[in-house]
Amino acid sequence: MENQITLKAFGMIAEKLGADQLRLENPGNSHELKNELFMKYPELKGLKFNLAINKKMVSEETDIPIGAEVALLPPFSGG
Question: A Pfam family name for this chain (predicted)?
Fold first, then answer.
């Protein structure tokens, strides 16, 4: 469990991953994480989703701390 993160997926994203939780090597930052996910799960490329690191929404490239919980959140609907 050296440099791993917990990935939590919701909604359609979890369906595409085939799981709602994964353990992954920490890629270092949010940009690298997305690249890695798109390589492993190409069907994610067509989906819009937001990232939250340790329950904080991130919009630009953000470092991922060791042991972080990263959530892949589908777009929220509402008004």
Answer: ThiS
Percent of the chain as helix, strand, coil, to the nearest 5: 30, 30, 40
Task: For residue 28, give both structure tokens.
Answer: 């270092």
Span 18-48, pLDDT tens digits:
999 999 999 999 999 999 999 999 999 989 9
- Round to whole Å and give the CA distance between 65 and 63: 6
Q: Determine the CATH number of domain 4-73.
A: 3.10.20.30
User: What are the residue boundaries of the structural domains of the chain, listed by start?
Assistant: 4-73
Alpha carbons 47 and 10: distance in angstroms, whole number: 12
Tell me the residue type at 65.
Answer: P
Indicate whether this model's pTM tops 0.85: yes
The one-letter amino acid at 9: A
CA distance 38 to 78: 27
